[in-house]
Amino acid sequence: MPDKKSGKPTAALEVVMVDRSATTRRPNSPRMTGASVHVSLAGEIGLRIVRGDYPPGTILPNEAKWSEVFEVSRSAVREAIKMLMAKGLLSSRPKIGSWVEPKERWNLLDRDVLGWYAASPDRESFLRAVQELRHMIEPEATALAAERRTDEQMTAISQALHDMDQATSLQQRTESDTRFHIAILRASGNDLLVPLGVLIESALNHLFAHVTREEDNLRYALKLHENIEKNIRLQRPNMARNAVRKALANTDDIIARWSR
Description:
This is DNA-binding FadR family transcriptional regulator. InterPro entries: GntR_C (IPR011711), TF_FadR/GntR_C (IPR008920), Tscrpt_reg_HTH_GntR (IPR000524), WH-like_DNA-bd_sf (IPR036388), WH_DNA-bd_sf (IPR036390). One of its GO terms (molecular function) is DNA binding. It is built from 11 helices and 2 strands; from the N terminus they run H-H-H-E-E-H-H-H-H-H-H-H-H. The chain is mostly helical. It has a two-stranded antiparallel ribbon. Helix 7 (about 170-185) packs antiparallel against helix 8 (about 195-200).
């Protein structure tokens, strides 16, 4: 980050030299075309930042360089940089350029940032962080859902469970599993949990896709979800809370086995 007096990066965040491959286009990268070029470019740069190609303090290549590497207009580069600034990944100043902000300033609950984390080499750490968040939120949210859910909300939860059971592909099961947990957050009746559920949806999708791939007994996992649904439907908060904890513990075991 620039020093306010000198306008130059402070010593703690001096320019970091990066591997040349970080400023080249991947051979298999599709050409960026259409109205959302800046979105695609922001995704490419954002992924490189999150996976560590550009550590905090790094001064990014200028507009001309990005424009040359990805064969896009400078206006598209500017829009991409603005997107990444809005997500807290970058700051920018005239005559200095754009630099990577410290990780603690990143909006880690942003859908795109979560997606980049899920695609980064440190996926195990990402999965564990998602699980920690779920342990803090879902048991109590589920207990609240058991107390407060409406008939309409209960229908949404039950339908998601049914769709999990009937899924014929990994994608279908993952989408239904995510929808099940998001529906529970909505049924909790706590307005603050609703936007949080939307924000972590991307993270849950990546987590469930991995867990489903590794699960040896999908029927057992489904039974855990059936127990959650049953206790919400019968409005038994304590049992619903414990049912979620059991399902989370099962997911913890799967991640642990995968990481060995």
